[in-house]
Specification:
Length: about 375
Amino acid sequence: MKQYFAGMFFIALAAVAVLPTQVRAETTTSSVSSLLELLQSLMKQVEVLQKQLAEIKGEIREELKDGLKEGMTDEDIKKIQELLATDPSIYPKGLISGYYGPLTSDALRAFQKRHGLAVTGMVDTETKKLLLEYFKERTNGKIPPGLLRAPGIDKKIKDRMYKEDGKWQLDCDDKKAAGPFCKDKDDDDDEDEDEDEDEDEDEDEDDDNNGTRTKAEAEDAIDEAEDAIAALKAAIATSTDEDLVEDAEEELADAEDDLEDAKDDFDDERYSFAFTNAQKAEDIAVDALDDLVEEDEAVAKEAAADAIDEAEDAIEDLEDAIDDSTASEDEIEDAEDALEMAEEELADAEDDFDDEEYQKSYNSAVAAEEIAKDATEDLEDAE
């Protein structure tokens, strides 16, 4: 575009050059001056238009990469955490670290549950679409406080989408819809036919118990559920608030039922179902424990102290794993970065404990433990 305007300028100069000598003498100075002013004005307009075009392209391009999953550290995860943190009921901890741990996974589950999405705790396709819609409500590239709590924004986003077969889709007739994720309903119908065929195959696989989870994964999930239930029982025993105890015991009963189902599925070698039920049991127990920690100071203090001890043990295990590791330099460096992050979280937990901020201390200690455990597992898998 700049070349276009420059070309027009030289054409104008040529036109002035072919004027009669006397006229040219009288007009050349003023004409060239006017043309220069015009060209400068046009150049400024071009720069403004180019900037606006770049901003528009930036708004509609995909802003979250694929493949984000628990255990990763990434700038896109930090963006998601920043959004989720605008509503404490969804992300109580509000930690914006870029690390995708259990706290972030729980926050995503709360986000998904509120919006009627499949509650997976993962950044799946439908969740990603909805997150991107919220990102479009940023102001000057920043997420405004309380964005997820604003009823007007929620309505505005839902007006731009439609729900079909239980899934949110962007409304392709709406000019504000994000192009890369916009699907015509006809295309969805075609995809549904393909999915029906795939579902038949999936059902056969489930019948043969060739699901997506291995025996080891199911076993680990059951162990984690048992640990969460044990922690909840200990918290119930510590609490002196009868109402809180009654609510927690109801949640405990539900968690134990799901755990029992998980163990039955495991015995029947239905590992996918065992994994799912074990996760449900763990989620119920963790949520109930969080509620107790939040409401009962005695429980919170005890839970925070236990969480700090467990975080210290996990960090020591990670330090030993780094010292003994035969993995590559890059993998060891990643583990060292995770160690530093875990130590920072632990330091925050200890400071909060000293300040009698037991809820915050508990959350930071849990985050430290999970960061260290995940890094240790990643390092061992890399060997």
